[in-house]
Amino acid sequence: MILRTAPDPCGRTSRLRGSGLAAALVAGSFALAACGTAAAQDSGSQNPAPVAASSPAGAAAAAPAVDDGRTAADEGSPQLRLDSTEEEVHRYRKAYADCLKEHGSGEWAGEKPTPAEKSTYEAARRACADKVPLLPPEMDPKKNPHYADAVRREVKCLQGHGFKVHLIPPQASDPNTISWTYDSLPGDDVDIEKIQNECRVKAYGGGAAITPGPA
C-alpha cells in the first residue's frame, strides 16, 4: 500500500493512506490523539484538525448547549468513547471520508489543492459535519474541566519515554487551551504510535484506539 506524508499539527510528518483532502482531513480529525492539543484549538467539530485547520468549530460553539453537555450542532454526530475499539474508529472515519468523496472532495491533481479544490472541500466538509466523530468528553477541552491536567500528564509520560516534547502555554485566560508539540522526532527505531497510545491512556484513562491517522 502506498503511503504519502503530510504535515500534522505537532510539526511532525503524518503518513496518510491515499491522497487528497479527504484523507488529510480524516487524519486531522483525530489529531488530538497525537498532541492532546489541537482540540483546544478546534474542538467544536471534535476533529482536532490541524491538517485541514478550518472546521465548524464556530458553529458548534455558538449552538445552544443540550443537557448532556453536547451542543445542538453535535446532535447526530457519532460519539467516540474512551473504550471505543479500532473497528469503531475506522468505521466512523471511513464514513466521513466516504461522505466527503460523495460531495466531490477527493484527490487533488498536484501536491497542494487548488482554490477550486479547496472550495469543493469546504462545501463537502459542511455537508458532512454530522459525520465527524466526537471525541470522548474526557478528551474534549470544552467538556473536561481537568483537560489541562491530562495534557500535562501526557507530556510527562512522553518525556519519560525520552520524547523531546514541550508544553505550549494556554491562550488567554482559558487553561484548557494548553497544548504540546515535538521539538524533534524520535529515531526510526522508536515505535512512536505505541508510546503515544500508552501515554494517552495514562493521561485520559483510555482512548488507545483513538490514534491520529486516516480511515
Cα shape: globular
Q: What proportion strand?
A: 5-15%
Q: What oligomeric arrangement do these chains adopt?
A: single chain
Which secondary-structure class do the elements indicate?
Answer: mainly alpha
Compute the number of strand runs.
4
Spans of at least 5 consecutive residues whose pLDDT stays below 50 are 1-34, 36-70
Average residue-wise pLDDT: 73
Radius of gyration based on Cα positions? 16 Å
Helix content: 25-40%
Characterize the largest beta sheet: strand count, sense, and whether it forms a barrel: 2 strands, antiparallel
Helix count from the secondary structure assignment:
8
Distance from N terminus to C terminus (CA atoms, Å) equals 14 Å
Strand order of the largest sheet: 1-2
> What is the N-to-C succession of helices and strands?
EEHHHHHHHEEH
Write up this protein.
This is Lipoprotein. Keywords: Signal. Residues 1-33 form the signal peptide. This protein is mainly alpha-helical. It is built from 8 helices and 4 strands. The strands form 2 sheets. A two-stranded antiparallel ribbon has the order 1-2. Strands 3-4 form a two-stranded antiparallel ribbon. Helix 1 runs antiparallel to helix 5, helix 5 crosses helix 6 and helix 7 runs antiparallel to helix 8 (192-204).
In short:
The protein has eight helices and four strands, in the order ββαααααααββα.
Keywords:
single chain, 215 residues, mainly alpha, two-stranded antiparallel sheet, globular
